[in-house]
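#structure-requests
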Amino acid sequence: MNDQAQSTQYEDRPWLDPKAEPFIEIKGVTKQFGSFTAVKDVDLKIFKGELFALLGGSGCGKTTLLRMLAGFEVPTFGRLIIDGVDMTEVPPYERPVNMMFQSYALFPHMSVEKNIAYGLKHEGINKQEVGDRVAEVIDLVQLGQFAKRKPHQLSGGQRQRVALARALVKRPKVLLLDEPLGALDKKLREQTQFELMNIQDQVGITFVVVTHDQEEAMTLSTRIAVMNRGEIVQIGTPTDIYEYPETRFTADFIGSINMFEGRVVEDKADHVIVKSEEAGCSFYIDHGVSIREDSTVWVAVRPEKIMVDKQAPADGSHNVVSGVVQDVGYFGNHSLYRIELKSGRIVHVSKPNERRSSRRERGVEWDDEVFLSWEASSAVVLTE
């Protein structure tokens, strides 16, 4: 492959390019507050133009890590490098970053355009340039008709865009966003996610987003770092994180999943067989795991990967189990089934409602005995 072809291959996925230099590099960063370690020995590389998400539950260390990038906290150990410059000891006002807070922190007595211009005026930038840059970002976030309004005259989504414009108008190299959509309702949050992605694509600035919302991280980001107890447990694209979790924590934290403890009875290069008393069946997975036979592992299967039918599948030697429907939840675009196995274990199965069903049509209902099955490629084997 020639250099031009390689460059095209890595254009949208620079983290796969062994020659690519990270735009942000976090090296062995630890942050302690007294005897409490909030962030523990974190190594992370973020590339220019990424929309990178730090995802985790409350207290996992993601906001502390963001605040260290902003300069509001200083690492106890380790280094922070942005665009090749060591920023570990550099104060916040001298860093090429800006931060957008969850509360938006808008000045209630100022109009939209004055809120956006505030930071530029305090930097002593001439009036003409301030006006030009404010007009540019107001147009970018599509708030032209609201430029003279005060924050209380705006909707939640509009206030969010004002805060974003105020952060972008200073033209930072890196924009840090702390739960940027947390104050919005579900429908508006979903709409604003795509607006945020489009704006980031237009300006080309590297975004680092902190969120506890898994769907938000999956929708927004080029890559995700999943954090737990101050450590990064997995880094990958949304597809990698969802389809190929590396630990039980990641598998359980991202989306919904059915997880079964089992014992490896056969491990070959092209498959592994795991017997699970909890599931009441043997799992056949179409890849090996390089683990000693008789070892304890966990097998994870997403609810949407499982097929549910009243008839037993023709080949029932592996990946088939029966149970009784305990609950059915109808959500419009899909239905969720809670099915009790003979072991007493409850399995969740998600089935898309692909067509409009007849009022007289009887599908899978409460108390039905059903058979669950899944493909050999659908399950994931986890060793920790």
